[in-house]
Design brief:
By secondary structure, the protein is α+β, with helices and mostly antiparallel strands. Helices cover 22% and strands 34% of the residues. It has 8 helices and 20 strands. Helix 3 crosses helix 4 and helix 4 packs parallel to helix 5. The longest helix is centred in the middle third of the chain and has 17 residues. The mean pLDDT is 90. The structure holds adenosine-5'-diphosphate (ADP) and magnesium ion. Adenosine-5'-diphosphate binds next to helix 1.
């Protein structure tokens, strides 16, 4: 019975290779028409998770359900071909000796004429009917990727599993292809699980991001949520450069160059990290010399000396050494701002964009 209404549901799934747990208690839920990105660094267990869902890999404990039916558990293993799951990988391997239509028709069943007809329908769907008679080597990388998509769609999968399928395409081609691909899958009501190690790709594509690290899901949420409310310092650092102000708790407060911060739940003497992204620092251009003026939203300004400034295209990255404790702080400002090294400037930060975490060991 499907109690949750989820199309795909993973419950505390574990997988072990050579005695080592590589997927640990992973729980995840996807609805029809939803795109979830499994995001994390290389080697964290993303592909293994996908392979277990596809039925190519067996799990040790836990359960995988599709539309409420158990597909994998400690004692159930439904074979891959009975799961109605589509797969797309970076190496999508079209058959070189078959035409585009034959490649798509390959995974269809039924009479030959009907299969060809359906293959042409699918090629129309992905905008490739002109190339129906072409061979894979006559197509661009993006077109080949679309053939692979048509082939995957041919089986009317309830779930589409995609393992970094766009990483082989060059940048300009990629944006168009991935937007089109996901729009089409959403229209079909397919639940999509897209694996990527690139935060920008996940932010752009996902309805929901599941952030994975060392075999575990660290955080699940809408892109905005995961970006603005990171679960810990490492989760914050996965999406952008970050600044860390480290300080010791005293009376429930920590003192920094930017004034005092509350450290709720932290005992006296504990070290905390105050984490802030470079774009949430503001440089005070009007008051390079005069003293600080506190504001409720930006706290107390702090003075730093420019070490380095670089232009990044649409913004500039300026690195400071803070007078307060000689710590390094990065600020990103829009457009071109390239102050000379040695210049002293006042900085303030958006207090609502600061996150206070127990100090991590990695520093
Ligand atoms: P990701 O896709 O996130 O890069 P993987 O799921 O491919 O990570 O791998 C997770 C870990 O499991 C890695 O340490 C990898 O070396 C290991 N691993 C993957 N497949 C196997 C296998 N068949 N046998 C042994 N170890 C494996
Ligand atoms: Mg992988």
């Amino acid at each position: 019975m499907n109690l949750t209404g989820a199309r795909l549901e993973l419950t505390e799934v574990n997988c072990r290779f050579d005695g080592r747990l590589v997927v640990k208690d992973v729980s995840l839920s996807l609805r029809a028409g939803q795109v979830t990105c499994l995001l994390g660094p290389s080697g964290c267990g993303k592909s293994t998770t996908l392979r277990m869902i596809a039925g190519i890999e067996k799990l040790e404990t836990g359960a995988i359900r599709i539309d409420g039916r158990v597909m994998s558990s400690a004692d159930v293993h439904v074979p891959p071909e009975e799961r109605e799951v589509g797969l797309m990988f970076q190496d999508f391997a079209l058959f070189p000796h078959l035409s585009v239509t034959q490649n798509v028709a390959f995974s269809l069943s039924g009479p030959k004429a009907r299969r060809a007809e359906r293959a042409v329908e699918l090629l129309k769907r992905v905008g490739l009917e002109r190339h129906a008679a072409s061979y894979p080597h006559e197509l661009s990388g993006g077109e080949q990727q679309r053939v692979a998509l048509a082939r995957a769609l041919a089986q009317k999968p309830r779930i589409m599993l995609m393992d970094e399928p766009f990483s082989g395409l060059d940048n300009r081609l990629r944006d168009g292809i991935r937007d089109e691909t996901l729009a089409l899958l959403k229209e079909e009501g397919t639940a999509v699980l897209l694996v990527t190690h690139e935060p920008e790709e996940a932010m752009r594509m996902a309805d929901e991001i599941a952030l994975m690290r060392d075999g575990e899901i660290v955080q699940v949420g809408a892109p905005y949520q995961v970006y603005t409310r990171p679960a810990d310092r490492e989760a914050a650092a996965f999406f952008s450069d970050i600044n860390t102000l480290r300080a010791t708790v005293s009376g429930g407060l920590v003192e920094t160059a930017f004034g005092g911060f509350l450290a709720p739940g932290q005992p006296d003497g504990a070290m905390v990290d105050i984490v802030i992204r470079p774009q949430h620092l503001t440089i005070d251009f009007d008051r390079s010399g005069t003293g600080p003026v506190a504001s409720p939203s930006h706290g107390v300004p702090a003075r730093g000396v420019v070490q380095r400034a670089r232009f990044l295209g649409s913004e500039s990255l300026v690195e400071f050494e803070m007078d307060h404790d000689k710590s390094r702080i990065m600020a990103v400002v829009p457009n071109v701002f390239l102050p000379k090294p040695g210049r002293a400037l006042w900085l303030s930060l958006r207090r609502d964009r600061c996150h206070v975490f127990p100090a991590s060991h990695t520093g």
